[in-house]
Design brief:
Length: 560
């Protein structure tokens, strides 16, 4: 990267890196980086680039030794010096003057003489028999050449509408600062409206095409012109065919789920052993059929057959080599996750074929009833934690683990600051599990969401300070962050708790360009002292944070 730099930028990079080499401790490294980034990215068009670089550097420091921190700092400096001309040019294109228009030839620039308007020719009358037949909706651009393409598009449309309705039951309003369920970038993936389009595109695309053999004879071949063009016939036909469509897709997803799990197990074994294993041989009993012979008085003849077995040696493939069906399952799930990533959505590992089966098979009415009951109980101030836990266990018996986790996430997002707090969320997630593998086996979604809480709540405090929110919002953010260190076990979530502490430690660098950097540094020290146990009294921490921030936040609006 440095070979393509102009001479002046290369000299600047060498000078800054030589100064970096003289830094001898972590605190000095933060001060050095704050000064360098503020100096290099001081123009108006650099503000967004500066914020991204600061956040990336702060997030990457966690868990690194001091030499590794210096290596990361050198990489950040090199990226800044290399990319800032491109960032500046992009900002100028957005906010600067529009590009000049190319000169227009004189002949083209000459005014066109006005012409008298020409009245349109009269349209001849047509007989009803000559009118065109009503046509079915056009096929989507990505459709392939398939004999039942219009019928498949109709089934895809009905299937997509059903998925939309089911996923709409699983969305809740997202909370604002301060909230224990707040997220900076991406909330729980089912709460993102764009996930419905991703799931629809995958199920009505690759999965539905995989089911053509099972659907052609019983469903697709029966879709006629009336079904494609008349809404009343569409409703009638779909009511008849829906169960068969559901059955075929469910069978396909079941097989894919089985192959996917087998492929993941083989990949884990390969990662553990370093290879696919060795080919071998196995002795098996094979049936052998031969004529039944008789010998009577020296006369031999055959009559009928007799089947026996003999032992033969057969070649056995490597134990961890994936079968074609397993490779297909891995390719499809990779396509699903890549499609989500292109839309800016990161899916959890548990969003797999088994989860897609769940989306098609659950009872929407029962789910909506349980959702309203649990959220209503969690929102009521008189509901006890014991009763809420009892009702949640009852729902767990009626739904799959995926759906129970969705209900828990909806309760936590809506009522995480009232009756279903972090302690209840932690209890529902961890239960009696002694390690993460046992926890994930029972709860597919919420362990990852619980593990995100320390980091997200540290970011919430940083954002509350950066936006200069009301004092109550800042104190609420501090209180919720400290709750993580009180509730969450270090045995299960030690790395996540350390990562959140790293975010707070980086406040002096992140706010180096802010006029109130001294105040924010003081707040960071107070929070860290309470986290590490130097000042275990939370009330004293909140009081001193309030005293430090009161001058800044007292004039801000009371809402985030």
């Amino acid at each position: 990267m440095t070979d393509t730099l102009p001479a002046d930028q290369r000299l600047l990079l060498d000078d800054v890196l030589s100064r970096l080499g003289k830094v001898e401790e972590s605190a000095g490294l933060l001060r050095f980086m704050a000064e360098i980034l503020k100096t290099l990215l001081r123009r108006q068009g650099d503000l967004q680039f500066l914020a991204v670089i600061q956040d990336a550097f702060a997030a990457g420091l966690t868990g690194l030794t001091f030499p590794e921190q210096k290596e990361l700092a050198a990489e950040v400096i090199q990226v800044v010096i290399t990319k800032r001309p491109e960032i500046a040019l992009a900002w100028q294109k957005i906010h600067g003057q529009p590009p000049r228009q190319a000169s227009i030839p004189a002949e083209a620039a000459a005014p066109v003489k006005a012409q008298a308007p020409v009245s349109p020719a009269p349209v001849p009358q047509r007989r009803a028999a000559d009118l065109p037949m009503e046509m079915p909706p056009p096929l989507p651009p990505e459709a392939d050449e398939y004999a039942f393409g219009h019928a498949e598009a109709f089934v895809a449309s009905q299937l997509g509408d059903a998925l939309d309705n089911r996923l709409a039951l699983m969305r809740v309003p997202l909370p604002a600062i301060p909230s224990v369920a707040w997220c900076l970038d991406q909330p729980f993936f089912l709460f993102v409206p764009g996930f419905a389009a991703i799931a629809k595109a995958f199920i009505t695309g690759p999965i539905l095409r995989r089911c053509r053999d099972g659907l052609e004879k019983r469903v697709l071949s029966r879709v006629d012109h009336e079904v494609l063009t008349r809404p009343e016939r569409q409703t009638e036909f779909w009511n008849e065919a829906r169960e068969q469509v559901w059955k075929v897709i469910d069978e396909s997803l079941t097989k894919l789920a089985t192959h996917h799990k087998a492929a993941e197990a083989k990949q884990a074994a390969i990662a553990r052993t370093g290879n696919e294993g060795k080919e071998g041989f196995r002795v098996v009993e094979m049936p052998v059929t031969r004529p039944r012979t008789y010998n009577i008085l020296g006369v031999e003849f055959a009559l009928g057959q007799i089947t026996t077995t003999k032992r033969v040696k057969v070649k056995v493939p490597p134990p961890y080599k994936m079968e074609p069906e397993e490779i297909e399952a891995m390719d499809l799930i990779r396509e699903f996750r890549n499609g989500a990533a292109q839309a800016g959505l990161k899916l959890p590992d548990a969003a797999d074929f088994q989860f897609l089966r769940t989306l098609l098979n659950f009872n929407p009415r029962l789910f909506a009833q349980s959702r309203d009951e649990l959220i209503g109980l969690a929102a009521h101030e008189d509901t006890t934690s014991a009763f809420l836990t009892e009702r949640l266990k009852a729902a767990d018996k009626s739904f799959t683990n995926h759906l129970t986790d969705v209900l828990v996430m909806m309760m936590f997002t809506r009522c995480g600051d009232t009756s279903f707090r972090l302690a209840q969320f932690h209890a529902a997630c961890v239960g009696s599990a002694r390690d993460k593998s046992a926890m994930v086996a029972k709860r597919p979604f919420i362990p990852a969401e619980l593990a995100r809480r320390p980091h997200e709540l540290a970011l919430q405090l940083r954002e509350a300070l950066r936006r200069r929110l009301h004092l109550d919002a800042v104190l609420g953010s501090v209180e919720r962050l400290l709750d993580c260190y009180k509730v969450m076990s270090r045995n299960l979530f030690g790395a996540e708790l350390d990562e959140a502490r790293g975010v707070i430690t980086a406040f002096p660098m992140v706010f180096a360009a802010d006029a109130e950097v001294a105040t924010y540094t003081t707040i960071a020290k107070l929070v860290l002292a309470t986290i590490t146990g130097e000042q275990p009294d939370r009330s004293i921490c909140l009081m001193r944070v309030g005293q430090a921030y009161d001058r800044i936040g007292r004039k801000a609006a009371a809402t985030a």
